[in-house]
Amino acid sequence: MSFIMKGKAKRSNEMTARQAANALAEMVRHNIKVQYRNSFLGVIWTLLNPLLNMIVLALVFSHIFSNRGIGMDYPVYIMGGNVIFSFFRMATTSCLPSIVNNRDLLTKTRIPHIIFPLSNVLSSSVNFLFSLVALLLVMLVRLLMGAKIGFYWTSLMIIPYFPAVFGFSLGIGLIVCTIYVRFRDIKHIYTVFLLLWQYGTPLFYSETILSDKMAAVMKFNPMYYFVKYFRAIMAGDISDWASFGICYASAALALMIGLLLFDWRKRSFTIYV
Fold first, then answer.
1. Rounded to two decimals, what is the model's pTM?
2. Is residue 180 part of a domain?
3. How far apart are CA 73 and CA 76, in angstroms?
4. Nearest Cα to 182, choosing from 99, 251, 112, 118?
5. Using one digit for the tens of pLDDT, what is the confidence trace for 81-104?
6. CA-based angle 13:99:30, to the nearest 5?
7. Which range of residues forms the domain containing residue 136?
């Protein structure tokens, strides 16, 4: 009898996990639809946005930074950095209100709380794939224009690399969404903090132009390593295993802190939403 009861409990848990997976997939689809609702170009904006950002930044900064320690085609350098940072920014900013914005589901269903921020990071991952297509198009166009650009097999390292930036973004997303439930002002603070973080990451300039003190401070910026290694694999170099390791170490630390904080505070979410 006990064996039968255990079997039923196991099937029940499997069904619950399946339902949670279906809910997660549905929320990802919903997030993507909402993002492009009433947009004439729709998902095409996912391609146009990084392209337009690259054009603006290249026009503004090309004469200032393009020949100062960049070491690769400047438009590709800019877009390579922005693709990574834009994913991080989109993932974490969409996570921030994810619990509060889903208060009805949170209070009326037994859906696992973590599905809300996780669905936003997964939705941002879809946008990231389109941004990669835009980056490859820019590289092809620059190659046809005579720029010194190559397409290397090392680009496949994006497969083992991406889980690190995904995990880091999810970890930070869990932290900010947990704090936002109780302190709504963090939305404005985080916007300013992201802007500071963006300019503190070498997206359109090289760290070689910084003073020794600023370069030392840069070493404590996790996004510096994520951007640096992504550019390296796109340029055909996978030798910087130290940066690769730091990416995964940063992701593990952010995830650990995020999960612990989220799990600690999730029981109080229904009180404040």
1. 0.86
2. yes
3. 5
4. 99
5. 999 999 999 999 999 999 998 887
6. 75
7. 26-272
